[in-house]
Design a protein that fits this description.
Helix content of chain B: 40-55%
Number of helices of chain A: 2
Largest interface: A-B, 31 and 53 residues
Shape of chain A: rod-shaped
Strand content of chain A: under 5%
Strand content of chain B: 15-25%
Structural class of chain B: alpha+beta
Shape of chain B: globular
Number of strands of chain A: 0
Helix content of chain A: 25-40%
Distance between the termini of chain B: 58 Å
Oligomer: heterodimer
Chain lengths: 43, 237
Protein backbone atom coordinates (compact mmCIF):
# COMPACT_ATOMS: atom_id res chain seq x y z
CA UNK A 1 0.00 0.00 0.00
CA UNK A 2 1.41 3.34 -1.01
CA UNK A 3 -0.21 5.56 1.60
CA UNK A 4 -0.42 3.82 4.96
CA UNK A 5 -3.15 6.03 6.39
CA UNK A 6 -4.64 7.33 3.20
CA UNK A 7 -8.05 5.82 3.96
CA UNK A 8 -8.66 8.77 6.27
CA UNK A 9 -8.46 10.93 3.19
CA UNK A 10 -11.15 9.15 1.26
CA UNK A 11 -13.21 12.28 1.10
CA UNK A 12 -11.50 14.07 -1.72
CA UNK A 13 -13.25 17.30 -0.97
CA UNK A 14 -11.37 17.35 2.28
CA UNK A 15 -8.16 16.96 0.37
CA UNK A 16 -8.97 19.75 -2.05
CA UNK A 17 -9.19 22.03 0.95
CA UNK A 18 -5.50 21.57 1.65
CA UNK A 19 -4.28 22.08 -1.90
CA UNK A 20 -2.81 25.54 -2.03
CA UNK A 21 -3.05 28.08 -4.85
CA UNK A 22 0.16 28.25 -6.85
CA UNK A 23 2.26 31.23 -5.88
CA UNK A 24 4.05 33.43 -8.37
CA UNK A 25 7.55 32.30 -9.11
CA UNK A 26 8.91 35.27 -11.01
CA UNK A 27 9.84 37.78 -8.37
CA UNK A 28 13.37 37.37 -7.13
CA UNK A 29 14.16 34.55 -9.49
CA UNK A 30 15.03 36.43 -12.63
CA UNK A 31 18.67 35.38 -12.37
CA UNK A 32 17.60 31.76 -12.48
CA UNK A 33 15.56 32.63 -15.56
CA UNK A 34 18.70 33.76 -17.28
CA UNK A 35 20.70 30.78 -16.04
CA UNK A 36 18.11 28.42 -17.45
CA UNK A 37 18.09 30.36 -20.70
CA UNK A 38 14.64 31.91 -20.47
CA UNK A 39 14.19 35.36 -21.86
CA UNK A 40 11.09 37.43 -22.29
CA UNK A 41 11.74 37.50 -26.03
CA UNK A 42 10.71 33.88 -26.18
CA UNK A 43 7.20 34.64 -25.04
CA UNK B 1 -6.70 47.01 -8.90
CA UNK B 2 -8.34 44.22 -10.86
CA UNK B 3 -11.39 45.02 -12.93
CA UNK B 4 -14.70 43.24 -12.41
CA UNK B 5 -14.13 41.12 -15.49
CA UNK B 6 -10.70 40.10 -14.24
CA UNK B 7 -12.20 39.18 -10.87
CA UNK B 8 -14.92 37.13 -12.58
CA UNK B 9 -12.35 35.31 -14.72
CA UNK B 10 -10.38 34.46 -11.60
CA UNK B 11 -13.49 33.19 -9.82
CA UNK B 12 -14.39 31.01 -12.77
CA UNK B 13 -10.87 29.65 -12.95
CA UNK B 14 -10.98 28.72 -9.28
CA UNK B 15 -14.33 26.99 -9.69
CA UNK B 16 -13.00 25.04 -12.66
CA UNK B 17 -9.81 24.23 -10.76
CA UNK B 18 -11.74 22.85 -7.79
CA UNK B 19 -14.11 20.78 -9.89
CA UNK B 20 -11.42 19.30 -12.13
CA UNK B 21 -9.11 18.62 -9.18
CA UNK B 22 -11.89 16.80 -7.37
CA UNK B 23 -12.73 14.83 -10.49
CA UNK B 24 -9.05 14.08 -11.16
CA UNK B 25 -8.53 12.78 -7.64
CA UNK B 26 -11.59 10.55 -7.85
CA UNK B 27 -10.65 9.17 -11.25
CA UNK B 28 -6.96 8.71 -10.46
CA UNK B 29 -5.72 11.40 -12.84
CA UNK B 30 -4.26 13.33 -9.92
CA UNK B 31 -2.22 11.70 -7.16
CA UNK B 32 -0.05 12.53 -4.18
CA UNK B 33 3.66 11.78 -4.24
CA UNK B 34 4.14 8.04 -3.85
CA UNK B 35 6.55 6.16 -1.61
CA UNK B 36 8.85 5.14 -4.43
CA UNK B 37 9.35 8.79 -5.38
CA UNK B 38 9.77 9.94 -1.78
CA UNK B 39 12.40 7.29 -1.17
CA UNK B 40 14.37 8.49 -4.19
CA UNK B 41 14.12 12.07 -2.96
CA UNK B 42 15.76 11.06 0.32
CA UNK B 43 19.11 10.87 -1.48
CA UNK B 44 18.83 14.21 -3.28
CA UNK B 45 19.88 17.20 -1.21
CA UNK B 46 19.45 20.93 -1.42
CA UNK B 47 21.14 23.15 1.14
CA UNK B 48 21.84 20.13 3.31
CA UNK B 49 18.18 19.08 3.55
CA UNK B 50 16.83 16.05 1.67
CA UNK B 51 14.39 16.79 -1.14
CA UNK B 52 11.99 14.33 0.53
CA UNK B 53 11.48 16.93 3.26
CA UNK B 54 11.63 20.09 1.15
CA UNK B 55 9.16 18.93 -1.48
CA UNK B 56 6.58 17.77 1.06
CA UNK B 57 6.54 21.19 2.71
CA UNK B 58 4.31 23.76 1.02
CA UNK B 59 6.13 26.58 2.81
CA UNK B 60 9.49 25.41 1.42
CA UNK B 61 8.17 24.82 -2.07
CA UNK B 62 5.24 26.93 -3.20
CA UNK B 63 6.62 30.11 -4.76
CA UNK B 64 10.00 28.58 -5.59
CA UNK B 65 8.95 26.54 -8.59
CA UNK B 66 12.12 26.95 -10.66
CA UNK B 67 14.38 25.56 -7.97
CA UNK B 68 11.97 22.95 -6.70
CA UNK B 69 11.02 21.62 -10.12
CA UNK B 70 14.72 21.22 -10.90
CA UNK B 71 15.11 19.37 -7.60
CA UNK B 72 12.18 17.09 -8.41
CA UNK B 73 13.46 16.36 -11.93
CA UNK B 74 16.65 14.93 -10.43
CA UNK B 75 14.66 11.96 -9.18
CA UNK B 76 14.20 10.76 -12.76
CA UNK B 77 17.60 11.48 -14.27
CA UNK B 78 18.93 7.98 -13.64
CA UNK B 79 15.84 6.22 -15.00
CA UNK B 80 14.83 5.20 -18.51
CA UNK B 81 11.93 7.63 -18.35
CA UNK B 82 12.12 10.82 -20.31
CA UNK B 83 12.00 14.01 -18.27
CA UNK B 84 11.59 17.66 -19.21
CA UNK B 85 11.46 20.90 -17.30
CA UNK B 86 8.65 22.92 -18.81
CA UNK B 87 8.56 26.69 -18.37
CA UNK B 88 5.11 28.01 -19.13
CA UNK B 89 2.63 30.74 -18.29
CA UNK B 90 -0.34 29.20 -16.47
CA UNK B 91 -3.89 30.32 -15.68
CA UNK B 92 -3.41 30.09 -11.91
CA UNK B 93 -0.88 32.92 -12.17
CA UNK B 94 -2.13 34.63 -15.33
CA UNK B 95 -5.62 35.16 -13.92
CA UNK B 96 -4.71 35.73 -10.28
CA UNK B 97 -5.52 39.38 -9.45
CA UNK B 98 -2.60 39.35 -7.01
CA UNK B 99 -0.11 39.07 -9.86
CA UNK B 100 -1.87 41.12 -12.49
CA UNK B 101 -0.08 44.27 -11.42
CA UNK B 102 3.22 42.71 -12.50
CA UNK B 103 1.92 42.22 -16.01
CA UNK B 104 3.15 45.55 -17.35
CA UNK B 105 6.62 45.34 -15.81
CA UNK B 106 7.35 41.70 -16.48
CA UNK B 107 6.04 39.71 -19.44
CA UNK B 108 6.99 36.55 -17.54
CA UNK B 109 4.74 37.40 -14.59
CA UNK B 110 2.66 34.25 -15.12
CA UNK B 111 5.64 31.96 -15.62
CA UNK B 112 5.70 28.65 -13.83
CA UNK B 113 7.97 25.63 -13.93
CA UNK B 114 6.77 22.03 -13.92
CA UNK B 115 8.32 18.63 -14.46
CA UNK B 116 7.09 16.43 -17.26
CA UNK B 117 7.85 12.74 -16.97
CA UNK B 118 7.16 10.35 -19.79
CA UNK B 119 7.26 6.82 -18.47
CA UNK B 120 8.40 3.84 -20.48
CA UNK B 121 4.80 2.68 -20.79
CA UNK B 122 3.90 6.02 -22.39
CA UNK B 123 2.21 7.87 -19.54
CA UNK B 124 2.69 11.64 -19.56
CA UNK B 125 2.81 12.89 -15.99
CA UNK B 126 3.18 16.43 -14.69
CA UNK B 127 4.78 17.03 -11.31
CA UNK B 128 3.78 20.45 -10.01
CA UNK B 129 5.90 21.04 -6.93
CA UNK B 130 3.89 24.14 -5.95
CA UNK B 131 0.66 22.21 -5.47
CA UNK B 132 2.53 19.05 -4.44
CA UNK B 133 0.60 16.81 -6.82
CA UNK B 134 1.14 14.56 -9.81
CA UNK B 135 -1.23 15.17 -12.73
CA UNK B 136 -2.09 13.43 -15.93
CA UNK B 137 -0.72 15.83 -18.54
CA UNK B 138 -4.01 16.20 -20.44
CA UNK B 139 -5.85 17.14 -17.27
CA UNK B 140 -3.14 19.60 -16.25
CA UNK B 141 -3.40 21.25 -19.65
CA UNK B 142 -7.16 21.47 -19.24
CA UNK B 143 -6.82 23.12 -15.82
CA UNK B 144 -3.95 25.51 -16.47
CA UNK B 145 -3.80 26.12 -20.24
CA UNK B 146 0.01 26.35 -20.12
CA UNK B 147 1.62 28.66 -22.64
CA UNK B 148 4.96 26.92 -23.04
CA UNK B 149 7.96 29.26 -23.30
CA UNK B 150 10.85 26.88 -22.95
CA UNK B 151 11.56 23.21 -22.45
CA UNK B 152 14.77 21.88 -20.95
CA UNK B 153 15.28 18.24 -21.83
CA UNK B 154 16.90 15.50 -19.78
CA UNK B 155 20.38 16.19 -21.15
CA UNK B 156 20.27 19.90 -20.39
CA UNK B 157 18.93 19.21 -16.89
CA UNK B 158 21.80 16.77 -16.32
CA UNK B 159 24.26 19.39 -17.51
CA UNK B 160 22.74 22.07 -15.28
CA UNK B 161 22.77 19.79 -12.23
CA UNK B 162 26.38 18.82 -12.94
CA UNK B 163 27.36 22.48 -13.13
CA UNK B 164 25.51 23.27 -9.90
CA UNK B 165 27.26 20.38 -8.16
CA UNK B 166 30.63 21.67 -9.34
CA UNK B 167 30.08 25.23 -8.11
CA UNK B 168 27.91 24.47 -5.08
CA UNK B 169 28.66 20.89 -4.04
CA UNK B 170 26.20 19.31 -1.65
CA UNK B 171 27.76 17.88 1.50
CA UNK B 172 25.14 16.05 3.58
CA UNK B 173 27.65 15.65 6.41
CA UNK B 174 28.14 19.41 6.73
CA UNK B 175 24.51 20.08 5.82
CA UNK B 176 23.19 18.21 8.84
CA UNK B 177 24.25 21.16 10.99
CA UNK B 178 21.98 23.45 8.98
CA UNK B 179 19.13 21.03 9.66
CA UNK B 180 19.16 21.99 13.34
CA UNK B 181 17.92 25.42 12.31
CA UNK B 182 15.71 24.51 9.37
CA UNK B 183 13.84 21.44 10.68
CA UNK B 184 12.34 23.22 13.73
CA UNK B 185 10.97 25.86 11.36
CA UNK B 186 9.31 23.19 9.24
CA UNK B 187 8.02 21.39 12.33
CA UNK B 188 6.26 24.57 13.40
CA UNK B 189 4.10 24.32 10.28
CA UNK B 190 2.81 20.79 11.00
CA UNK B 191 -0.94 20.55 10.60
CA UNK B 192 -1.44 24.06 9.26
CA UNK B 193 -4.23 24.16 6.67
CA UNK B 194 -1.64 25.11 4.06
CA UNK B 195 0.42 21.97 4.67
CA UNK B 196 -1.21 19.05 2.92
CA UNK B 197 1.53 16.51 3.59
CA UNK B 198 1.59 17.04 7.35
CA UNK B 199 -2.16 16.75 7.92
CA UNK B 200 -3.46 14.21 10.39
CA UNK B 201 -3.95 11.00 8.46
CA UNK B 202 -1.23 11.69 5.91
CA UNK B 203 1.74 12.78 8.04
CA UNK B 204 4.27 11.99 5.35
CA UNK B 205 6.31 15.10 6.17
CA UNK B 206 6.56 14.05 9.81
CA UNK B 207 7.62 10.57 8.72
CA UNK B 208 10.36 11.96 6.47
CA UNK B 209 11.72 14.26 9.16
CA UNK B 210 11.81 11.38 11.66
CA UNK B 211 13.58 9.18 9.13
CA UNK B 212 16.17 11.91 8.45
CA UNK B 213 16.71 12.52 12.15
CA UNK B 214 17.38 8.82 12.77
CA UNK B 215 19.69 8.62 9.78
CA UNK B 216 21.81 11.57 10.88
CA UNK B 217 21.76 11.01 14.67
CA UNK B 218 20.01 14.36 14.89
CA UNK B 219 19.96 14.48 18.70
CA UNK B 220 23.75 14.19 18.82
CA UNK B 221 24.09 16.91 16.19
CA UNK B 222 21.85 19.22 18.24
CA UNK B 223 23.96 18.53 21.33
CA UNK B 224 27.13 19.26 19.40
CA UNK B 225 25.73 22.55 18.11
CA UNK B 226 24.52 23.56 21.57
CA UNK B 227 27.93 22.82 23.07
CA UNK B 228 29.65 24.84 20.36
CA UNK B 229 27.28 27.73 20.95
CA UNK B 230 27.85 27.57 24.71
CA UNK B 231 31.62 27.58 24.18
CA UNK B 232 31.40 30.43 21.73
CA UNK B 233 29.39 32.61 24.06
CA UNK B 234 31.22 31.51 27.21
CA UNK B 235 28.22 29.89 28.83
CA UNK B 236 29.76 26.50 29.55
CA UNK B 237 28.02 24.81 32.48
Amino acid sequence: MIYPSFTLFDKYKQMCYYIQPIKGCVYGYTNRDEEMGITSEET
Amino acid sequence: MATQIEMKKWELHQKKLNKLTLWGLKMGYIALYDDELIQKLRNIYSGGIPASIILLSNGMTNGHCYDRATLMSQAFLDTDDDVNLIYAGIDSLRLNPKYLKGKEENPLFDNHCIVERITKDGRHLIYDTSSGLIYDKKLYWLIEHPKVRKINNKESIKEFVKREEFFYPEDPEAGKYASTMILPMIEMTFGRPTEMYSQLGIELLQREIEEYKKRTNYDDVVKEVEEDMANMFGRRK
